[in-house]
Amino acid sequence: MEKEAVTTASITFTGENWTTWKFQPIIMLKSKGLYEITMGISQKPVTDPNGEWDRKDARAQEIIAVRMDAKVLTHLLSCQTSAQMWEKLKSIYEHQLQVSVHLLQQRFFGLEYNQGNVAEFVSQLEEIKGNLKQLGEELSDKMVMTKKFNVTT
């Protein structure tokens, strides 16, 4: 049976697009049967005479490493397995993601209309909402509408 070639355009991880970037390698790892190795679910067996686990891990490392800028790659130079690589990336960028979400939420709740341009105020609200959505955090339409309503009262 001939393998089907899949041509993909990949997103390069820059250190600032973790949420959107991580989706792509996860799908690729799953499609190639490498997800469990990368997530640490499948550990290297004590004996691996054919080196099958090592080959799979090397393919998983490739999927991760070739899709990032050099500045991000430097974080992974000491990692020996794809699971170590993934954990390192998560420890750095998931934390930054949570800080970003927190700061955006603070900005939303602290934003006040100062008798200026209403359209500009609404635009700022929508920008915050969009940024939070990109980070995987939904801001309900009701909350945004309440904030907008407070401008007109």
* Whole-number mean pLDDT: 85
What sort of overall outline do the alpha carbons produce when their principal axes are compared? elongated
> What letter string, H or E per element, gives the SSE order?
HHHHHHH
What fraction of residues sit in β-strands? under 5%
| Structure class | mainly alpha
| Count of discrete alpha- or pi-helical segments spanning 4 or more residues | 7
Structure report:
With 153 residues, the protein is an all-alpha fold. Helix content is 61%, strand content 0%. It contains seven helices and no strands. Helix 5 packs antiparallel against helix 6 and helix 6 runs antiparallel to helix 7. The chain starts with 17 loop residues before the first helix and ends with a helix. The relative contact order is 0.10.
List keywords for this structure.
single chain, 153 residues, 7 helices, 0% strand, elongated
Structure at a glance:
The chain is mainly α and 153 residues long. The chain is 61% helix and 0% strand.
Outline the secondary-structure elements:
Blueprint: H1 18-31, H2 35-38, H3 52-65, H4 70-73, H5 82-110, H6 118-134, H7 141-152
Helix pairs in contact: 3-5, 5-6, 6-7
